[in-house]
Write a structure and sequence with these properties.
Helix content: 25-40%
Order of helices and strands: EHEHEHEHEHEHEHHHEEEEEEEEEHHE
CATH class of the largest domain: Alpha Beta
CATH topology of the largest domain: Dihydrodipicolinate Reductase, domain 2
Number of strands: 17
Strand order of the largest sheet: 16-15-14-13-7-12-11-8-17
Number of domains: 2
Number of helices: 11
Shape: globular
Structural class: alpha/beta
Largest sheet: 9 strands, mixed
CATH superfamily of the largest domain: Dihydrodipicolinate Reductase, domain 2
């Protein structure tokens, strides 16, 4: 087995910087349980930004030409931290070159690109592995929620509600970025935040059967740059609402917003079943709340009521921080990256992987099509 895994990171915005930080932390958290991740090459659009990233993160090399890392036999993994519309080209080149791929969510900007990427994974005859960034699957509280659901602790699931709310876009002077352009981002809040919520619902409850969606754009024009008077057209949604029916018969609602004034990183989930219920709040991430309907009531309520499960930082095999330590947002990303690297080193497909990315994209596409056609109900394809 290799003693090192050489990684090239494409893009060094907030996410590229975060991934780079996490690769450096993994050996301190998990020791030598996997080959050491090495920050080999950073790729950005300009020489100045590439050199600055190299100096900050400690990459061995800095380049501006993506083909240089694809053609370098020393590189094992391509980490795609680029705008959504650039994922397909980077992934196809990496897979063709025999590299494993770690791809930011959503899988792509369009369903056409997502399907092409999935076909590329299917047809490669090499050791390439494809992993997705869906870090909320790795919150201990939500792993425990999945265990309880799979064990039948809440019985048949009737309904659920999920929401992911951000603020900041309600400022009309916030300038244009790739996240506000359909040709670069694919969608707005729907893909940016909805990809997380959709994957999390899939992770816990299974696949979507059909959806009905409403999308809204509140500020259709914005300055093309900070302080500019020239305006650009916003071509994506600001807020998305989805009603959904699941393959297992459950029904639910999802809301995604970048206009929720007063929120921070508010990801919340409620699941209601015949024998119990679950709830989770990302702003209270150390705990899962579980209601056991089978417990007996009695005088003054008996033992009935919501139980707080102290999930905190329970990660099997982690050397640091201790399991009693409060969980943080970065730690979930670290775990996502670690599990990807572990799968690569063990020569197996990562989880979450290409199918999770594609099926999330299929829900996103069905929701967009529903909204574009008068918010009609549409079936969700599974492949």
């Amino acid at each position: 087995m290799k003693t090192e895994l050489n990684i090239a990171v494409l893009g060094y915005g907030m996410i590229g910087r975060l991934h780079s930080l996490n690769y450096r932390e993994i050996p301190f958290i998990y020791g030598d349980s996997i080959p050491k991740p090495v920050l080999h090459t950073i790729v950005t659009s300009s020489e100045d930004s590439a050199l600055a990233a190299q100096a900050e993160a400690g990459f061995r090399y800095a380049v501006t030409d993506i083909d240089l890392v694809m053609n370098n036999p020393d590189i094992d993994i391509i980490d795609i931290a680029l705008p959504n519309g650039m994922h397909r080209v980077a992934a196809e080149k990496a897979l063709k070159a025999g590299k494993s791929v770690y791809c930011e969510k959503p899988l792509a900007g369009t369903l056409e690109d997502a399907r092409a990427m999935a076909r590329s994974v299917e047809k490669v005859q090499n050791d390439s592995r494809f992993g997705m960034v869906f870090q909320y699957r790795f919150l201990p509280a939500l792993v425990r929620a999945k265990q309880l659901i799979d064990e039948g602790a809440i019985g048949k699931i009737f309904t659920y509600r999920a929401e992911y709310l951000h603020s900041g876009y309600q400022d009309p002077n916030r300038p244009m970025s790739w996240r506000m352009k359909k040709e670069e981002g694919g969608s707005g809040a729907l893909g940016d935040l909805g990809s997380h919520v959709i994957d999390l619902v899939r992770f816990l409850l299974g696949d979507f059967a059909s959806v009905q969606a409403n999308l809204e754009t509140f500020i259709p024009q914005r300055p093309i740059a900070k302080g500019a008077t020239q305006m650009g057209q916003v071509t994506v949604d600001d807020v998305a609402w989805i009603q959904a029916k699941m393959v297992n018969g459950a029904v639910g609602s999802l809301e995604m917003s970048r206009f929720a004034t007063g929120t921070l990183d508010d990801l919340r989930l409620w699941v209601y079943g015949e024998k119990g219920a679950l709830r989770f709040d990302l702003m209270d991430p150390n705990f899962l709340y579980f209601y056991d309907e089978t417990k007996q009531g009695g005088d003054y309520g008996g033992s009935k009521g919501w139980q707080r499960i102290d999930s905190v930082s329970f990660y099997p095999g982690a050397k640091t921080p201790p399991s009693r330590a409060p969980i943080g947002w970065i730690r979930t990303h670290v775990e996502n990256q670690y599990q990807f690297l572990k799968a690569v080193s063990e020569d197996r497909q990562p989880n979450p992987g290409i199918l999770d990315g594609l099926r999330t994209q299929l829900v996103l596409d069905a929701a967009q099509s529903s909204a574009d056609n008068g918010s009609i109900w549409l079936d969700v394809e599974l492949a």
